[in-house]
Amino acid sequence: MELAGMDPVLGLGLFAFGLLLLALPLAFWKVSSEQTSGLVTLLIATANLALTAQLVLRWWQSGHFPISNLYESLCFLAWACTLTQLLVERTWPTPIVAAAATPMGLGCIAFASFALPDQLQEASPLVPALRSSWLVMHVSVIMVSYAALLVGSLLSVAVLVTDRGHALELRSSSIGSGGYRRAALATPLGSVGDPEEPMASLELSSVQFTRNERLDSLSYRTITVGFLLLTVGIISGAVWANEAWGSYWSWDPKETWALICWLVYAAYLHTRLSRGWQGRRPALVASAGLVVIGVCYIGVNLLGIGLHSYGWFFG
Questions:
Q1: 266 pLDDT exceeds 70?
Q2: Which of 252, 256, 244 is nearest to 134 (CA)?
Q3: Residue 216 contacts residue 168 (beta carbons within 8 Å)
């Protein structure tokens, strides 16, 4: 394809790819030097704006929500991943988040721009099953949930890389927001029974969370949001399926793998809330979620089977 005659939609995607490709090594360099970098955040924010312009332009060209094929879906996922990444960085401005999460957006754009055939990159009319007002509601929520789960899982991978076997003392709330440490006893427990000693009191002092604790908390909170969105997306998809095909659940391959994905992250949250797991063990569960999402999102489309394979690779 000649550069002069390039579709502006494809050009914006390549521009975003170049920005993310430049941001990734800078993020790793800043992590090694333990310095924050506004340049990395600026590059990712600019890439997100380019992806926003790309999706809006494709929406204007096609006349429908840009999710009709695998190319548009990958671009939307890259946009959602970079947006999630920027929101997470507002909580903790560190290059570790960019180093962990940027490869996902970069990989989506690279796969969409260089691996997919030209005919699949072009805008196409919606298939009859997608001509519904549920399209924007269901698909956008599912894709944003994937982005949050992927970014949260990548942060869990970062916990595995940086964790050196130190026990984490961070405790998060039941909905994954905020964090605190258990207060320590100022008076040893062995001296409480001494009549000359005062009653044991709690020592309250401000503490600085370690890097692993921050990563663990951010991963937990991001996955919690993604799990809630995935739940809403599955429910809305069931309602839409009932309208389109007369059944809320048909055990289609995409539906089955979406349920498996939901169960994996439900297990992750269960280990955090009920078992009190932190650090490496729940990070391993979240890392397994990366594989499950990959099969659910890309695998079903590559195989071209089921009712959801509207943009499969070999078709």
A1: yes
A2: 244
A3: yes
Provide Rg for the chain, Cα atoms.
23
pLDDT class for 1, splitting at 50, 70, 90? very low
Query: Over 70: is that where the pLDDT of 160 sits?
Result: yes
**For 24-74, what is each residue's pLDDT tens digit?**
999 988 887 766 678 899 999 999 999 999 999 999 988 888 887 888 889
Contact 45, 32 (CB under 8 A): no
- Output the pTM of the full model: 0.82
- What is the C-alpha end-to-end distance of the chain, expressed in Å? 21
